[in-house]
Amino acid sequence: MKAVVWQGTNKIGVETVPDPSILLATDAVVRVTSTAICGSDLHLLDGYIPSMEKGDILGHEFMGEVVEVGKAVKKLKVGDRVVVPFNLACGVCDPCQRGLFSACDNSNPNHRMAEAMYGGVSGGGLFGYSHIYGGYAGGQAQYVRVPFADVGPFKIESDLRDDQVLFLTDIFPTGYQAAENCNIVPGRDVVAVFGAGPVGQFAARSAQMLGAAHVIVIDRVPERLKMAEASGAQTINYEQEDVLLALREATGGRGPDHVIDAVGLEAHGHGPGALLDTAQQKLRLTFDRITALRWAIMSCAKGGTVSMPGVYGGLVNELPMGAAFAKGLTFRMGQTHTHRYLPELLGRIESGEIDPSFVITHRAGLSEAPDLYKAFRDKKHGCIKVVLNPWA
């Protein structure tokens, strides 16, 4: 089969690789009908996530048709149309039983690698996202093996298009969880979202769905800001305005009640902190460039929430913890517990409350993936979200 593979830092290719097969009785094999490039895939392209190996199949946003099931699979059958959460969960461990699916104790066979890096703690496994997260083959391919098939895959039994449900696999639940973590008071609270990429777009719309009185989106890319404005959000271009001053002016001087950092470890920005972040990251003295997180802390209102769906990889420097402490901020973060949001968010799509396909700017076959990875990373050609058809 054809698959998009990691060939080294800044090197993505399309190769012919062996078809996947059932390895455990709880597996299924899915014929992928649609898959997407996620912003967090760019951290792999740029070499910021360790333990990638040449030939690793990328992709954690995918959906398709079940073509084979293991003997122990009870809830799926051949022919079912499913979306597959980007993270794997066993469904029976203590975190899974509490709905903390991304913290699954049993889905990362390489947990010792993660424990060594993160101080004795490992999250669950992820599709197509390094060996530290399990080494699972990803879904930017024609077929994919799906472990824990009775837990993750979620059936789509309506006639909704792939474009409308594909993002249930990651970016819609991720944006929604980020907004939900803010405990928004409907009709009162102001929410600021740093980053107008795909997760930021869904975080902004989710904040609106949860009743935010006002949503402000911060970025520097005109087409991304324009997309955010289409939802009714106010926008700030941080290259044209002093972002902290603009947020104070927009909120009567108190700052946003909640701030969502939808950027993560490769933040752009300006000022001494951004320059220091860039230099330290190049020298591998820090994992993460934290300009967006720094601005989030500095701008958030007293007693507010800083919600962090953006991916961070390790240790950070120059974090303004004194400001966070003085204001009594609450931090909420972590990988998305995708599984628990699927029924509710599918319902919102089916009711017409939101059509997630609004975020798609590019559609292509797998062969175009290498160029589109770079266009997405470099924010060229108006690229905000890429959907790939593995059979085109």
Structure description:
The protein has helices spanning 41-45, 94-97, 111-117, 162-165, 171-180, 198-209, 222-229, 243-250, 272-282, 291-299, 321-327, 342-350, 369-377; strands at 2-8, 11-16, 28-37, 56-57, 61-69, 81-84, 143-146, 154-155, 190-194, 214-219, 234-237, 258-261, 305-308, 330-333, 362-365, 386-389. The longest helix is centred in the middle third of the chain and has 12 residues, at 198-209. α5 crosses α6. The two termini are 13 Å apart. It has 392 residues and is of the alpha/beta class.
Specify the structural class: alpha/beta
Mean pLDDT: 95
Q: What characteristic shape results from the CA principal axes?
A: globular
Strand content: 15-25%
Alpha plus pi helix count: 13
Largest sheet descriptor: 7 strands, mixed
Ends: how far apart? 13 Å
How many β-strands, per DSSP? 16
Cα-atom Rg, whole angstroms?
Answer: 20 Å
Low-confidence sequence ranges: none
Helical proportion, percent range:
25-40%
Q: What is the helix/strand order? A: EEEHEEEHHEEHHEHEHEHEHHEHEHEHE
Write the layout of secondary structure elements.
Layout: E1 2-8, E2 11-16, E3 28-37, H1 41-45, E4 56-57, E5 61-69, E6 81-84, H2 94-97, H3 111-117, E7 143-146, E8 154-155, H4 162-165, H5 171-180, E9 190-194, H6 198-209, E10 214-219, H7 222-229, E11 234-237, H8 243-250, E12 258-261, H9 272-282, H10 291-299, E13 305-308, H11 321-327, E14 330-333, H12 342-350, E15 362-365, H13 369-377, E16 386-389
Parallel strand pairs: 9-10, 9-12, 10-11, 12-13, 13-14, 15-16
Antiparallel strand pairs: 1-2, 1-4, 3-5, 3-7, 3-16, 5-6, 6-8
Helix pairs in contact: 5-6
